Amino acid sequence: MSIPDASTPDVSDPDAGAPERVADPGAARFARRLWAARELGIVVALALLVLVTVVGNPAFLSPQSLRDLVLGAAVLVVLAVGQTVVIVSRNIDLSVGSVLGLAAFATGKLLSSAPGTPIALVVLLGVGIGALCGAVNGALVAVARVPALVITLGTLYIFRGLDHAWAKGQQVNASDMPRDFLGLGTSTVLGVPVPALVAAAVVLVVGFHLRSYRSGRELYAIGSEPAAARLSGLPVGRRVFTAFVVCGASAGLAGVLHTARFGTVDATAGTGVELQVVAAAVVGGVAIFGGSGSAHGAALGALLLTTIGSSLAVLRINPFWQQAVVGALILAAIGIDRLLVVRAANRLRGRSSHGA
Amino acid sequence: MGRDTRSAGSVSRSALTRWDTSLLAALAAVVVVAGVTVDGFASARNAQFLLLDVVAIALIALPLTLVVITGEIDLSVASTLGLCSAVMGRLWVAGLSLELIVVLVVLLGAVLGAVNAVFVTRFALPSLAVTIGTLAAYRGLAFVVLGDQAVADFPAGWTDAASSGRPVPWALVVVPALAVVFGVVLHATPFGRSLYAMGNNAEAAAFAGLLVARAKFWLFVVSGAVSGLAGVYWTLRFASARADNAAGLELAVVAAVLLGGVSIFGGRGTLLGVLAGVLLLGAVRNALQLADVAADTLNVVTGGLLIASVVVPNAIVLGRDRWRRRRSDRGPR
Amino acid sequence: MPQLKRDPRPGLIAIAMAAVLVTAACGGTTRGSEQDDPAAGRATGQANPDAPLAEGLDVAFLPKQVNNPYFTVADGGGKTAVEEFKGSFKEVGPSEASASSQVSYINTLSQQGTDVIVTSANDPNAICGALNSARQAGAKVVTFDSDTKPECRDVFVNQATAEGIARNQVELISEQIGGEGKIAILSATPNATNQNAWIELMRAELAKPEFAKVELVTVAYGNDEDQKSFQETQGLLRSYPDLEGIVSPTTVGVAAAARYLSGSQYKGKVALTGLGTPNQMREFVKDGTVRSFALWKPADLGYLAAFAGAALASGRITGAEGEEFEAGRLGEFTIGAGGVVVLGPPSVFDAENIDQFDF
């Protein structure tokens, strides 16, 4: 069973929620340490990448360069964190690229037709459109009870089609939008670009919620054992619906950030980004089966993928290698996850046999 | 979601044949309506255009149907096609004969499929994640092989045979022939029936672990090889070997397979339904294009059909279940 | 679950494969063993320069991608022209820039009996067969912006000669950096035909004594993607801290580079020019990031292409060198070698004149 959905408990799948099921507190500590090691692994990979690049070109660590780096990662981080919420519940949202496009164009359109609109309202509109799209996905998945992959593949086409039908070949240009909005994309607070701060805030809020709130924890339970979750009385439908709304809202926010940063929007914004987002989450240790993964892990994955792009450009390596490297990285990431899970399982087995 | 769909899968064993027939009926309706109302739809020339447009999707959908029925998925198909196309261009420039190149390229496809298969069956990794990885990796390698160049000087005899051959382009013979082969394997052999078992019952699948792994292994290999063949077709039809050939086609193929009534959970679906789905999407697209409907509407229609294909049958089953439950609730305890 | 036994088939398959390989390796079709007939599909027939411009022509514009602002403007120019000669205009095309979907649209247009197909090719080879079969079915084919192989169309309307663009770009950047210093080029994709032709000619131009002190240090490729171009600009400034100027002869590249520069410490210090649209560049011209840049007028390009198509369909021209035709308000044009019509030198936009343009 490899398709993330909330339908069947998957007995053959030991990594669904590996760290969550552990009863023995010592083993739980061990598993937690193992997963901390997994995230540390991304940090180390990131550090190595930066180190190699700096050796090749010391200017890579200049403040301007670092600003560019986090700025470039901001949109993908926001998308990946939203996606994590959905994947953890053993679902997937492939429509995020189209939702981003729709929200980005709406933002641009609003600002060019009513330049006086307060920025807060603009952000609210983008997030609202995203949440609405997410609600459509969530309703279809949770209420009509159909697989998320199919639904969101369908809405990927539909939302993009609506975007094109609305835009009709128009482009909103930087000069059509008020400067203080575009300033959001480039201005900095204490040297950190605003979009990066927004992304960091999203990571913190979503991460904290997933870890510390009941409704967040329940998503992991649903993702590990949907049937058991339902039997034990968890509001599965409502939680999954909310997860999609959160994911859609984050895609909407990413759309606003996209507009602020790039200054020009047409109907193609965010085309094809969905697989990159899933890749970022997977590289960041979010199990595609659901049940495990964290917001900061996904954010690290997104940061790593973006850094690869920048490094290759700075090192002047044939850009054609970039995609191949990303692919290899995804395979390595899921391979390592698997290895960790098998190790954890062996360790647990060992403990319980000692105990018996 | 939920046990409901799962049980629906087995409950509506008879409903699945109905899904086939309703798709075929929808296809017939589209063809008749478009034939009457859209100028230029009902002609042999247009039929050939329509079929040539769906050949690549139809080809790749054949093995993918089997893969999805076992509960796995292969998203790397379009990238495999692209890499095979790039390699085909490279080898042609290097001076190999086309006959040899075609064989090598299909073998390459099989090897790429085997790589997926090793990750999925030997290391027990989720195929969705694995093939998203190889989707990026294979497309990346295609660019490494050919860069942004295009190789276009394939002999006219070969390219014509793919795009306007007499009496028909070869692909229009190969696809039906392969469809029959895959259809027989899936529906008329013990092996085919075992694929449904794998998709349907995780426990039984785990019990028979090794055999499942071997069957899935070969399905991924075949999926790769057929994608390689689709790469040959694509290259010759458009007389252009490029690294970005068929980029993004994976979603169109998956959409066609799902519209054809194959359950994304595995265990359910027929080849006839998938072919009907492929043709339905192709016919709708072709008819709307002839009627000068804009591309954005085509996307909305594709997405709508896809969602309807899962929502409608589910709604029917859910409704029926609810009705039954209400009746049994009223019955004696 | 039925028993699956290990069977001898893989071995048999391997032997069969080997046999096929051996047969295939001996003889067969190799490169150069079969020659294409270069004359296939060339324009034939006699031009009648006095023929009246036909009314009621069906003219279809098939851009690389619909919903692309550049092509929306170009096709708008085509629409104006078609209205002037009383034909019927339509714009069709894929929402993603792929050659395979263009083929499908060409087939549709041919099936609809369109008189004139005006297209910009996503791939010079891939749409060739479809265009030729449309021509056999009676359509006239004009390419604009991006050409196909010459044997697949009747006339190509070129936005500017490669020499004209190269000369213009080198002059602009040299003037902006004061005739001295290191420059880099930010191009589209590494094998975009027109980009590479321009880059070669720019190198030739830079070799001239008047530009002796301008040094081209590297060419970077932004793949005509906004984000990639943005990253490549960063990379350029990282790799060459003493860079004086950037030339980006692609609308996507120059806009992305301008956006990067305007938000960085290099604003106003590193010169930037290239080919861009006034609407995309207005912001950066006004904030001082960019002094001047160039582009042809896409609306004129579409306008000229439509008139070329009408002249072809009316039998006034056949696409042969030396033929002349009139294109409404743009005046007389002469077809050059290889069936190419040139729109003219690019226009230069700066703070003075940019507000007069809206595209």
From TrEMBL, chain B:
- Asked if the Swiss-Prot or TrEMBL record annotates the protein with the keyword Transcription, the reply is no
- Give the keywords, sorted: Cell inner membrane, Cell membrane, Membrane, Transmembrane, Transmembrane helix, Transport
In the bilayer, the protein is annotated as: Multi-pass membrane protein
Please name the Pfam families in this protein's record: BPD_transp_2
* InterPro entries reported for this sequence: ABC_transp_permease
Any stretches that span the bilayer, and where are they?
A: 23-42, 49-69, 100-119, 125-147, 168-188, 217-236, 248-280, 300-318
Question: What's the protein called, per UniProt?
Answer: Autoinducer 2 import system permease protein LsrD
Which species?
A: Saccharothrix xinjiangensis
From TrEMBL, chain C:
Q: Annotated region Disordered: where? A: 29-52
Fetch the Pfam families from UniProt. Answer: Peripla_BP_4
Q: Which PROSITE patterns match?
A: PROKAR_LIPOPROTEIN (PS51257)
- Top-rank lineage group of the source organism: Bacteria
The chain positions of domain Periplasmic binding protein read 59-316
The record's subcellular location field reads: Cell envelope
Q: Which NCBIfam families match?
A: RhaS
Q: Under which name does UniProt file this protein?
A: Rhamnose ABC transporter substrate-binding protein
Specify the species. Answer: Saccharothrix xinjiangensis
